[in-house]
């Protein structure tokens, strides 16, 4: 049927309108098809994001007064936590030229949470909000395949992707420390910038949401110049470093291509364990501290200190006791410890006895502590004391038991890394 139509159309056109008209019609048809394709693109992605687990997105009931059925579609009002808001998805389904100024501004506001987006100047942010489209894909979905033609530039709104050197991204799931990009990151700009094929494969590590800028818009809105500016900054930063003084410009540009700028705010954790990290970090601005976690439970002197102080606790949690230790008491304690030859031990024993007599000390675990285990500073007069039972959750450590609350660690500042230094 289609073949017959085509032949018939061809004959009519040939007879009546001539070849010029035919060519014009074909061009118009191609343009219309392109418009439809673009219009449907957002719709196609919307199919992907429709979550299958909404069992009853609509419910309806019979309204007796009106004598009609009232239907309510919950989907219009549901906003899943952290996900790109449905209202913004609706805007992004529209063609760029159909988006109103208010809609573009609304999208721009929502996207302020993305570091890589916020880095751009405001006019550019608005242009991006005008042309971006939304996509959501599941775990293991390959977004960019190494060696393929570059068509789009991506911002990550939610989720995590991995950068791999293989074709299908499978190595990311085997590698204990894959290169990961998270919310706020962007990728895919390199291939667009120098019109090269993709340098790496990008695969979703979980359900991930993207905002995509296509090649035509990337150049139409001069996004390439912004990205180029960013790359130039990185190049100049590396060029100034002594470490790369002997590197050629060409080699340095290769480093620039794989380096990314990441912003961390004050107090934000950069990495839990740099020994395990597969990154090298260069501090381009600001400074950060390197901290070491000390496990106090592994320290014999801390053990001793805890058990000494535990004797004074009258049934209240350890921390309460410590915080209530008044300056006067601390001073008296200091006196006792500073003058071990003076006999202050009776004072301390008195205090201990009071504490034991209190009903609140209905401890369930029995510990035997002889006079020898008391602080040496209390002097030899303390021979023994009654058996105590301590009721609190205990944890076994290499040095013996400790109350759960007392098994703590402290962060000790080891080093401050300044601008231009390496982590
Ligand atoms: N080592 C890397 N770290 C972070 N991102 C990278 C790394 N290598 C490549 N990329 C990104 O992965 C993208 C793959 O496609 P492009 O080459 O277009 O652009 C690339 C960069 O945006």
TrEMBL record:
Write out the annotated subcellular location.
Cytoplasm, Cytosol
Kindly state which keywords UniProt assigns to this record, in alphabetical order. cAMP, cAMP-binding, Cytoplasm, Nucleotide-binding
For this protein, what is any one GO molecular function term? Answer: cAMP binding
GO terms in the biological process aspect are: spermatogenesis
The record's listing under Pfam families reads: cNMP_binding (PF00027)
The organism's superkingdom is given as Eukaryota
Domain Cyclic nucleotide-binding, chain residue ranges per copy:
116-218
Q: What GO CC terms are in its UniProt record? A: cytosol
Q: Does the keyword Transmembrane feature in the UniProt annotation?
A: no
Q: What function does this protein fulfil?
A: Essential for male fertility. Plays an important role in spermatogenesis and regulates sperm motility by controlling the development of the flagellar bending of sperm.
- What's the protein called, per UniProt? Cyclic nucleotide-binding domain-containing protein 2
Its lineage reads: Eukaryota, Metazoa, Chordata, Craniata, Vertebrata
Gene label: CNBD2
């Amino acid at each position: 049927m289609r073949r017959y139509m085509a032949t018939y159309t061809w004959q009519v056109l040939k007879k009546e309108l001539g070849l010029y008209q035919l060519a014009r019609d074909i061009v118009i048809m191609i343009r219309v098809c392109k418009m439809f394709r673009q219009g449907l693109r957002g719709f196609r992605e919307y199919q992907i994001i429709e979550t299958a687990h909404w069992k009853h997105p609509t419910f309806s009931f019979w309204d007796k007064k009106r004598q009609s059925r009232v239907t309510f579609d919950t989907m219009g009002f549901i906003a899943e936590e952290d996900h790109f808001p449905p209202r913004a998805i609706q805007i992004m389904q529209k063609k760029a030229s159909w988006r109103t100024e208010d809609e573009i501004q609304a999208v721009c506001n929502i996207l302020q949470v993305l570091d890589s987006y916020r880095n751009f100047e405001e006019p550019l942010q608005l242009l991006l909000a005008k042309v971006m489209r939304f996509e959501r894909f599941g775990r293991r979905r390959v977004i960019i395949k190494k060696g393929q033609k570059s068509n789009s530039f991506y911002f990550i709104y939610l989720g995590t992707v991995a950068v791999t050197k293989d074709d299908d991204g499978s190595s990311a799931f085997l590698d204990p420390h894959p290169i990961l990009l998270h919310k706020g990151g962007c990728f895919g700009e390199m291939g667009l910038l120098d019109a090269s094929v993709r340098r790496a494969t990008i695969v979703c590590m979980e359900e991930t949401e993207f905002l995509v800028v296509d090649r035509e818009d990337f150049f139409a809105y001069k996004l390439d110049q912004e990205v180029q500016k960013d790359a130039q900054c990185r190049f100049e930063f590396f060029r100034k470093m002594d470490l790369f003084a002997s590197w050629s410009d060409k080699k340095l540009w290769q480093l620039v291509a794989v380096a990314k700028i990441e912003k961390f705010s004050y107090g934000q954790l950069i990495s839990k364990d740099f020994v395990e990290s597969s990154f090298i970090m260069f501090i381009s601005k600001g400074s950060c501290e390197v901290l070491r976690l000390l496990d106090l439970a592994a320290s014999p002197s801390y053990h001793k200190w805890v058990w000494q102080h535990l004797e004074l606790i009258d049934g209240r949690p350890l921390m309460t006791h410590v915080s209530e230790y008044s300056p006067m008491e601390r001073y008296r304690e200091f006196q006792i410890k500073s003058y071990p030859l003076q006999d202050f031990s009776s004072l301390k024993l008195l205090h201990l006895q009071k504490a034991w007599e209190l009903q609140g000390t209905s401890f369930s675990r029995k510990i035997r502590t002889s006079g020898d285990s008391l602080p040496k500073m209390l002097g030899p007069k303390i021979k023994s004391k009654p058996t105590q039972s301590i009721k609190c959750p205990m944890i076994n450590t290499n040095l013996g038991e400790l109350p759960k609350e007392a098994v703590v660690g402290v962060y000790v500042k080891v080093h401050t890394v300044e601008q231009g230094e390496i982590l």
